[in-house]
## 1
Amino acid sequence: MLERAPNAAQAALPLDEAPGDPPASAIAKAFAGDGDDTLQRYDWPAVSQQVDSQGWGLLPRLLDAAQCQQMAAIYDEAAHFRSRILMQRHAFGRGEYQYFAYPLPPLLQALRTGLYARLQPLAEQWRQQLTSAAPPWPAQHAALLAQCHAAGQQRPTPLLLRYGAHDYNCLHQDLYGELVFPLQVIVLLSQPGEDFDGGELVLTEQRPRMQSRVQVLPLQRGDAAIIAVRERPVQGTRGSFRVQHRHGVSTVLRGHRHTLGIVFHDAE
């Protein structure tokens, strides 16, 4: 799910800006809760090993049905977002998405902070394998945002996506600038088979001198997928090499599909 800057040229396209106000107190109450408490129930060493070995991992039932419904329902409240993108206008696919404005809803903020803290060790492992000369990833998300803002990446990147029948999302990478944290999280807010048919989350893996491998992730409502944003290291006979990743959404055949995307770096 998440979504967007397939390449540098498309990333430079202007956004459809829609100025709005900070989230209202009603929205804050709807998402009251401690995302970090939610995250404690997962076996993070096992999750990290799964992501490291295949470029993706699952967090079943990260959000409950009520939280999914509440999050999807605010899509039509434009004041909570900084911009709205129509995918067809930019040849990204069909459908639309909106980027949240700061401050984020409390649960989303807690999840972004808590997920970052748990994914940072794997991101740091990947950095050491691929670009050891680059600065280490900071332990706290606030420090990463400070680095982003100092580099001119000051716009929040968490987003909500909405698809209808015949909509889809082309394969892409969510880059947004020079500073790219290597992992992101996609949460499905709608129930397959009830709210929509089709619309699977699709991942591709491209190894050097090999054809692309495709993976379809079996998400249910509230499940989250941790995926590689751009690349991950794989150990070969001569050391680590880079495996490229992209993700997208197959065509929705019926109904409506909502997705929450949590990108950890901010945008230019």
Note: The chain is about 25% helix and 30% strand.
## 2
Amino acid sequence: MTHPDVMRAGTFQLGDRTVNRLGYGAMQLAGPGVFGPPKDHDAAITVLREAVESGIDQIDTSDFYGPHVTNRLIREALHPYRGGLTIVTKVGARRGDDASWNPAQSPAELESAVHDNLRNLGLDVLDVVNFRAMGDPDGHGPAEGSIAPQFEALAKLREQGLIRHLGVSTITPAQLAEARGIAPVVCVQNLYNLAHREDEAMIDDLATDGIAYVPYFPLGGFSPLQSDSLSAVAQRLGVKPMQVALAWLLHRAPNILLIPGTSSVGHLRENIAAGGLKLPADALAELDGIGANAA
């Protein structure tokens, strides 16, 4: 049965699927630095199963998490998958033996990554595949440059029936336009949260076109969000700062889908509770000011 707070977060059309806006990101199930096995295998399985039992019906993953770790955990915990569950994965990188993040963006590498995801998830077709551009030197921000060869390679795999829908990640508006000229794009996954708002115009444009925007690091990622305003709002409302940060994203635009990650059942439940959190006007005004100050 879907948890009431998952329902309160609302739904959005992702390709041919109507999904709950509150999803789950599997990245943190891997070991430290998103490398190696989980510190607690049984806990990881429990988190995945509780997420789905709570009504979360979109899971974000990649075969380069671990590598292979999160996809194999998802398969172990959830296969055979219940109807309506949408698994979104991404390709475009590989992990080195030293846990480094390296580009893997040739057509052959992308095709190999798609087959890795299919095999490790136990699927015949992937629901959504995001092309992950490597972007700037730290890998978290976009950098200009054509992504046509990569997106054309994925579009061919879509035509072959291995992929239902395509998305893009860590891209610029120009790259988004280029991708949309090659094949339909159902979602964009970029860095965005209370303190990082470079994509404001893109989010609104995508909403107009009915395309999902999926912020990664919605809670700050490896450097959790820290803000006196965020803490003050949370204290007034009697909730956790991270719950306020998630609720703000849900309020920001109807096409934003959330994929907060955690390896803890307790944190999962806190994230779900954020779906039902209503922010009063004064809180929204104070939170909006965080981005203005960061800029």
Note: The two ends are 42 Å apart (CA to CA).
## 3
Amino acid sequence: MLVKWEGIVIRSVDYGESSKVVTLFTREHGKVGIMARGAKKPKSRLGAVSQLFTHGYYLCKAGPGSGMPDLSQGEIVESFRDLRQNLAATAYAAYIAELLDRLTDEREANPFLFHMLLLLFRYLDEGRDAEILCRIFETKMLRVAGIAPHLSGCANCGAEREPYAISVSQGGLLCPACLPQDPYAIAVSPSVWKLLRLFQVFDLERLGEIEVNPSTRSQLKHVLRSFLDQHLDLRLKSRAFLDQIENIGL
């Protein structure tokens, strides 16, 4: 049986001497794995469409059982060439793809995530602020993982009383009265928690220019990574390289 999916390549692993196992995040079925036989051969018609980050339509032959479908042919919609040629953009895209891969299950349709991933890659290809795009994505993926911080008042008592700190263990903002509940709460400027609250509900299609100073950027990264590390401990391979890129300011 032939099936046609619209998808984005989020992982590509060599298989044998000439083939690849490709993971797509599809509009129709979420994350699916397919076999691209012969894709590593120089003249393979499957080579380009199976490259990481490619957005396209994939015609696959699915067997009667639960085995991996074979990729028969593909049509590239967007190759994101400028993204690929920019080292920093590539690092962010790889991190975004791996985080999405690790936080989603096979064959769980999520058109919202597909659309968000597509927009992120388009913005990275256009040269938008990759660091802020990544922070927006991390914020939204915390919600996907069920660990979104509580940012509409104190997570402990519910009071709306500033100045707030952010507690990873308590799951969000802490007011001054509740601050003793977590001696490791992260002191942040008001702009940090307000941006995080905005990122949680922000529609990426409305993205304009976001001016964020270096101190706020650093605090945003620290807070989001602290939530990811304490609650999920994913150990992403792409993260070390991304951190190097951010540290040298590329």
Note: The two ends are 46 Å apart (CA to CA).
## 4
Amino acid sequence: MSGWLPSAPCTPRACVEPAGPATAPPRAVLRMTAVLLLLLTGVCLLPLGRAIPARAIRAWCRSIVRAAGVRPRITGTAAPDGGLLLVANHISWLDIPLLAAVRPARMLAKAEIRRWPVAGPLVARAGVLFIDRDRLRALPATVARMADALRAGQAVAVFPEGSTWCGRAQGTFRRAAFQAALDAGVPVQPVSLSYLVTTGADRATPSTAPAFIGEESLLTSVWRVVSTRGLVADVRLRPPLPPGTHPDRRTLAHASRPTPTPDHQGGHRPPTARLRWSPLAPAPEPAATCQDPAARPAVENPVTARARVVDAVGMRGFRRPRTSAARATGSPAADD
């Protein structure tokens, strides 16, 4: 796996907390059955692709969210037609139907999905765009395909963090996807996603129950969602950023990053074990601080960390420079 791939420190054990009263098991089973049936229906209709009316897609996506026992609360609107780059923070598998409920779009997904049996060819036929995260040199071609879709008047949905977070903190927005909007001359629609649980008397508190993080299986995450009572999906569409208002992808990505609401500020720091590291051994995994990157020290890339230590003991010249390809493609390696 490439060292530049984005990752989050969130894990189910460290971040997912009990959220209010649980739904009775029979009701949870009914919810899960309904969600699976709706998903199966969608898979069967995937070969029709963009022939399905946008209104029907939005209604189907809202039905998935409601069938899971989650009440969607959408604020704002998106342009109904024309090229548009939808960007949002990434927390849960629910994020995908929630974005499609706002406006159906071509999703940017990891290339591994394309190799899945049955589902892979179907989602490819439906118009999903794929990114090979292990091949840095393939990034310019992916950005070019996104720009072509945007120029053709289509919407493209991207989760620029590149990894799911638990919802109490957010990752950095990677900038490569924003280059497609700049090249195509289309607006960017920032979307802020968060999940709450109602606690009575119209009060709601942030919830990590919908998070789909770490090595957790999809079925485990779905079961936790359908078993939690009173979940609310808060979808806030911020004003679109028109083309020409930001000169480069750096400022465009920064302007698109959601601002945490007061209930989500401060981060969440679960207890972690102290780790020891030798310069002769691989660097350890970063501690699961689950805190906003802007509020905590940055975690050093293992390659950079080893180079810094080796330089300190006298073996200079070990530091690996950025390649010209990385600088030119706008990859996370070049931007971060």
Note: Strands lie at 70-75, 84-88, 106-110, 129-131, 155-158, 188-200, 203-206, 231-237.
